[in-house]
Design brief:
This protein is α/β, with parallel strands linked by helices and 386 residues long. It is 33% helix and 19% strand. The radius of gyration is 22 Å and the shape is globular.
Length: 386
């Protein structure tokens, strides 16, 4: 009789394309149940990603997605979704996992911890927030943080910046498995044709949402300052979001030349977007990580990255990092990007998806109980997604 595999349940708000390679390795090693709450309305290009992941049970649990608008200084800063998904409970009871991973700190993590406590199963909390991203959380979320940090024994952090935040919460370093946020390196290292043909060169590329949190308005201001000094270049901005029309009007008001707004594309078309640019500019005002930086580095694009991205110091040198709220520094650094003075990316700083998956497997197997030879009959009720 073959040895049964460890049953792993992973609870997430939605399936992100960057996580598919890691989930694939976990599915090959464990009996994997991936529970999610559906796709958020501002992530249209992320739909049907479950079709790209084989070997795992993939279930959308019953619940609600409640949109909220986060405001700063009286203006909309970011659109977020609160996931209330009690359906996780039913599927966990049917699957009976030996170990659980829950993404971020919210209701699903409380459900995972309650299940782990009742059935004596280890729970890992996969965390990405940084000292900067969590600096303004309210009283209720601070209380939730305190509850979860006292309850959870194992943590997985996106990288050094999120580990630093967990340590500030009082979590012991030996309880944290520090990995990286990563993308499918094979997709971005393959040759592909540029999706957009933009002139004049160089082409400074932005990829992401058009929302205040991403700092695109500051990028337009810096570009106007640079063009006012006589520099010639193109701006290629690829994405979608509620602020697109406002940003297009801002570009007109600034009398910017050679500015091109283009809609977001499906994840499998992303490599061709990076082939369309000469440098990536990531002006975010707040991001737990910033996967576009990984994608650009793998595509061999120089990167100019905001210091407010969680990945900045881990992946880039000081020459590639700037403060987007410092207008003079932003314009100066953007000038270096436009004149080819940014250092080339050092891809040795990136961990591969397989390395990350193997780190997860080792940590899970070191703690999780060994499965018995008799598999629970209830597991057969969950269909295998193919």
């Amino acid at each position: 009789m073959p040895t049964p595999r460890l049953k792993l349940a992973v609870l997430v708000n939605m399936i992100a394309p960057a996580r598919i390679p890691v989930y694939s390795v976990l599915a090959a090693h464990f009996d994997l149940l991936l529970l999610h709450g559906g796709t958020e309305s501002n992530r249209d290009s992320w739909r049907d990603l479950d079709r790209t992941l084989s070997g795992a049970r993939i279930v959308q649990a019953w619940g609600w997605q409640i949109p909220t608008i986060r405001k700063e200084k009286g203006h909309a800063f970011d659109k977020q979704y609160l996931h209330i998904t009690p359906g996780y409970i039913w599927h966990l009871l049917r699957f009976r996992p030996h170990a659980l991973i829950s993404n971020e700190i919210g209701l699903r993590t409380l459900i995972a911890l309650a299940y782990g406590t009742i059935f004596r199963r280890p729970v890992w909390v996969w965390w990405g927030g940084t000292v900067h991203t969590e600096r303004k959380i309210g009283f209720a979320r601070r209380c939730l943080r305190k509850c979860v940090t006292r309850w959870a024994n194992r943590w997985i952090s996106y990288g050094q910046s999120s580990t630093e935040y967990l340590l500030r919460l009082g979590i012991r370093r030996d309880r944290v498995l520090q990995i990286q946020n990563a993308v499918d390196e094979h997709r971005f290292t393959q040759n592909s044709e540029p999706h957009f043909r933009v002139h004049p060169r160089p082409v400074l590329l932005y990829v992401g949402q058009f929302i205040a949190r991403k700092g695109v308005d500051l990028l337009l201001n810096a570009a106007a300052s640079l063009q006012g000094q006589g520099h010639e270049f193109s701006l290629l901005l690829v994405g979608s979001g509620p602020d697109k029309e406002m940003l297009e009007q801002q570009a007109k008001d600034l009398r910017l030349n050679n500015v091109h707004f283009r809609p977001s594309l499906a994840p499998d078309q992303m490599p061709s977007i990076y082939r369309s640019g000469d440098a990536l500019v990531f002006p975010t005002l707040e991001d737990p990580w910033g996967l576009v930086v990984n994608e650009a580095m793998l595509s061999r694009l120089p990167v100019l990255c905001s210091k407010y991205a969680g990945c900045a110091e881990e992946l880039l040198g000081p020459e590639n990092i700037f403060d987007p709220e410092n207008a003079q520094e932003f314009a100066r650094k953007l000038g270096q990007a436009a004149t080819g003075q940014l250092p080339k990316p050092d891809t040795s700083r990136l961990k591969s998806t397989n390395e990350i998956a193997q780190d997860l497997i080792r940590d899970l197997e070191s703690i999780a109980p060994k499965p018995s030879r008799r598999l629970p009959a209830a597991s057969a009720e969950l269909p295998l997604h193919r």
